[in-house]
Amino acid sequence: MTSQADHDALTSSAYAQALEVIGAVEPRIAEATRAELADQRASLKLIASENYASPAVLMTMGTWFSDKYAEGTVGHRFYAGCQNVDTVESIAAEHARELFGAEYAYVQPHSGIDANLVAFWSILAHRVEGPWLQKAGLRGVNDLTEADWEALRRELGNQRLLGMSLDAGGHLTHGFRPNISGKMFHQNQYGTDPETGLLDYDALAAKAREFKPLVLVAGYSAYPRRVNFAKVREIADEVGATLMVDMAHFAGLVAGKVFTGDEDPVPHAHVVTTTTHKSLRGPRGGMVLATEEYAPSVDRGCPMVLGGPLSHVMAAKAVALAEAKQESFRTYAQQVADNAQSLAAGFTSRGAHLVTGGTDNHLVLLDVSSYGLTGRQAESALLEAGVVTNRNSVPADPNGAWYTSGIRFGTPALTTRGFGHDEFDTVADLVVQVLSSTQPGTTKAGGPSKASYVLGDGVADKVKAASAEMLDKHPLYPGLDLA
Ligand code: DSN
């Protein structure tokens, strides 16, 4: 067993040497890599979908597994020599099944969008193609005639999907028109209650009864509240829909047992998708969990819609999932949720307006219109002061999805650095200082601008100095010294 000091020295030396090897080929990349670490260390990272993976997870991605093709699935590959990839993929899937209590896990998706595409096509294959093949008395796709394909294409292309609208907090892959999900499906959207901003299950049920979707999508990327997935499953069952939950944002809270019972999507959904790099704190990538019933069609993800699996990333997923099984991850996940409460309370006590009035997950959505700003202006002013966030629509947003009226904040990353209640209260204070000191700018022609802004003199420096004090107390990768 190595001591923490030995471990830190090993990590520092490994990265310093790796950067030397990289720098000998393309010094600008080694330099940008060092600069990225410095920037991440020096800023308040509040983007709700970002985190800091452990050195073990990061290092696992930098190996020769990157060089191997392995299309197909474990034990059934389109390439020879995949025995070690099989080992890696099996271990990652085993950890995922155990951690989430899932019947089946597919760890190949390269991203959240890929995971959702795998899920959509798996549901279509299971619900549309499967019965159609059986009805036609066919054994497999090779038996289809051109006329059969024509009929199947028509049927596949006319299915209904009901998802949460983007401005209510859904994700663009849940049927938003510019995304393929909004084009490949006959889509419809549910929103939130205009008064409370909360999900209205009765309204959702009424819409589902009227629309009768094949796929009902639950999950969100900017809704600051928990969802009762048992209720959503009842609605799906009533209308004969497959329930797909996208838990990309809150997978860490599920893994860490903050969301249990009705709030845990895994026992209630037919198919669950996620990314692995957000609150779950793993490598950049995606994953699909499913019931046994959907497993065979999910397993066809590659080559159905995915290119060759990223074996080095699957290996890193296995490491991250092993980390998430540890007791310390439960403590972390609970702290993420507690910190979101502290941040929300800090904003509310300073007069800021929060969508839904607060939070009970890992994110807070601040409506910045009361400061006379668009989300775009607020995001830029905050960035100038070293506070990294992203603009986001609020329900029925008058400024649309580009300029927006909201700023989304998340606690996973700074919680990894060790921030607690007091620091998040200070973060709220700093954010409010910036927003209160920002004025909308004007266009070149002198008219009102939705993008430019003017931040009061000295505010950025003052906020950066206050942030630096907290960041210094909670260093990122404390043992990692590249000097
Ligand atoms: N980009 C992710 C997010 O920020 O929520 C989702 O795609």
CATH class of the largest domain: Alpha Beta
What's the arrangement of strands in the largest beta sheet? 4-10-9-8-7-5-6
Largest sheet: 7 strands, mixed
Q: Averaged pLDDT, please? A: 96
* Tally of strands: 17
The fraction of residues assigned to DSSP E strands is 5-15%
Which topology of the largest domain does CATH recognise? Aspartate Aminotransferase, domain 2
Helix content: 40-55%
Radius of gyration from the alpha-carbon trace, in angstroms: 23 Å
Structural class: alpha/beta
- What's the domain count? 2
How many H/I helices?
19
Which geometry do the CA atoms define? globular
List ligands, each type once: D-serine
Reported CATH architecture of the largest domain: 3-Layer(aba) Sandwich
CATH homologous superfamily (4th level) name of the largest domain: Type I PLP-dependent aspartate aminotransferase-like (Major domain)
